[in-house]
Amino acid sequence: MKSIHSSYDALIIGFGKGGKTLAAYLANQGWTVALVEQSPLMYGGTCINIACIPTKFLIHNAEMGVPYPESIGEKDQLIAALRQRNFNLVDQSPNATVITGKAAFVSPHQVSVRLADTAEEIRIEAERIFINTGASPLIPAIPGIGQSQRVFTSTTLIQETQLPNELVIIGGGYIALEFAGMYAQYGATVTILDRSTRFLPHEDRDMADAVRSVLLAQGIRIEQGASVDEIIPGHTGQDTVVYHTPEKEQQQIQASAILVATGRQPYTEGLNLSAAGVEQDAKGYIKVNELLQTNVPHIWAMGDVNGGPQFTYISLDDFRIIRSQFSNLDRHTLLDRGQVAFSLFISPPFSHVGLREHEAQTKGYRTQVATLPAASITRAQVLKETAGLLKCVVDADTNQILGCTLFCANSSELINLVQLAMRARFAYTVLRDTIYTHPSMSEGLNDLFGKLK
Ligand SMILES: Cc1cc2nc3c(=O)[nH]c(=O)nc-3n(C[C@H](O)[C@H](O)[C@H](O)COP(=O)(O)OP(=O)(O)OC[C@H]3O[C@@H](n4cnc5c(N)ncnc54)[C@H](O)[C@@H]3O)c2cc1C
Ligand SMILES: NC(=O)c1ccc[n+]([C@@H]2O[C@H](COP(=O)([O-])OP(=O)(O)OC[C@H]3O[C@@H](n4cnc5c(N)ncnc54)[C@H](O)[C@@H]3O)[C@@H](O)[C@H]2O)c1
């Protein structure tokens, strides 16, 4: 281990995507950098250890038919290797040091760190401080939830080596749907209990209905408007989840595992932000300006903890915003971020960028809209992945693409192509008339945009 100094040019708290990239960048520029991470099992942050990478690996294995216990073992090997690689990425730089311990502010320029191995408390000062501490699962106050041995979060469920027979998922967002698809493919009986009365409430109804029918066909039961009243711990390998429907009818379901996927909250526990005078919003997110500076000008907040969209690529873009303040590169701020695409990794993946049809109409656009069944794309037939629907929304007055939703094989790649076209402000005709390789899912864009007049 490298020796720890009492003072650094930059102190980064948390080993998230933005923070680790910034640590390597600043160290390369000759700054002295300390990166504090509370757990050796979290080098590299949430994405590689407990979120994007392990879940997408497990989803892919499920699609390939690899048995669950084997998949969990392979996943553990993969993330151990990535963890080491991420540690080296920062710590092997001569100007950067990874310090393993829990950081807490003592004053605006000083942080105490309780070292993970010795429990010793050390103090570090830094001219500039970057907070990148992420988010943690939000656990609703459901009676019995604390007593149950079968309640899991996304972090703990993917550590289970045995497949749960009956998985009940509380929530209907990203984690709920990705885990539902994955565990159903591994062979579990899956029920989603979603408090919202509408499935995928932000999506156009035609797209939401297409997703819902595919998940139902995969054997997943979906209860909308389900409010969980109680979890009753059982002694025979199952708990009882008691919930009521919008019509106030009480229902019960048996669960060998219960996944709580009801959102995530900023991770500021123990950080003692008040000692630095850093302000938080009503939900606890750290308030930042368009440069990601907090109200204390030498302290920045990046990644999930600053209340932006919770994606790894947003944390990386937060790095770009901060980098532009310490380099000769053009200034990049939150104001020029533009449209952010996302992909929900169900089978097939569901991806979106820009405005939905209902949003474009609410904003007063005169729209042209087209949809295309995924089955009409030859590549989808080749892949035997014919489920799904594609949709585009175009400004009828300017031919600009307003939004696109792709529920089809490879949509997590295709959506980046559409996003690039939107960013370049291409007319939709560019995507319609581009020569794509064959047979490819991209060719679907010829046909989708070709349906517009
Ligand atoms: C199950 C799941 C699946 C996901 N899938 C995707 C996906 O497919 N694609 C995608 O883009 N996003 C996905 N996300 C979201 C993505 O993981 C997060 O947006 C991203 O990891 C946030 O990174 P971050 O930079 O904010 O910090 P994080 O990576 O969360 O890092 C924060 C680090 O700070 C440490 N820390 C916290 N407090 C302290 C302290 N006081 N002292 C020292 N260290 C501290 C933590 O241990 C942690 O390692 C997923 C999330 C989950 C939960
Ligand atoms: N593919 C990806 O990029 C990906 C994958 C997973 C997670 N993520 C990120 O992680 C974040 C957190 O994911 P998430 O799924 O936990 O949150 P989410 O905000 O996506 O969904 C929360 C869901 O829980 C429901 N809910 C809330 N309280 C409830 C209750 N008491 N009972 C029943 N349902 C309840 C809501 O209606 C909603 O459907 C996401 O916002 C996303 O940014 C991204």
Automatic annotation (TrEMBL):
FAD binds at residues 56, 304. Disulfide bonds join 47-52. Pfam families: Pyr_redox_2, Pyr_redox_dim. InterPro entries: FAD/NAD-bd_sf, FAD/NAD-binding_dom, FAD/NAD-linked_Rdtase_dimer_sf, Pyr_nuc-diS_OxRdtase, Pyr_nucl-diS_OxRdtase_dimer. SUPFAM superfamilies: FAD/NAD(P)-binding domain (SSF51905), FAD/NAD-linked reductases, dimerisation (C-terminal) domain (SSF55424). It comes from the Bacteria. Keywords: FAD, Flavoprotein, NAD, Nucleotide-binding, Oxidoreductase. Residues 343-446 form the Pyridine nucleotide-disulphide oxidoreductase dimerisation domain. The keyword Flavoprotein applies. GO terms for molecular function: flavin adenine dinucleotide binding; NAD(P)H dehydrogenase (quinone) activity. Its cofactor is FAD. The active site is at 438 (proton acceptor). Binds 1 FAD per subunit. NAD(+) binds at residues 171-178, 263. PANTHER family: MERCURIC REDUCTASE, PYRIDINE NUCLEOTIDE-DISULFIDE OXIDOREDUCTASE RCLA-RELATED. This is Pyridine nucleotide-disulfide oxidoreductase. It comes from Larkinella rosea.
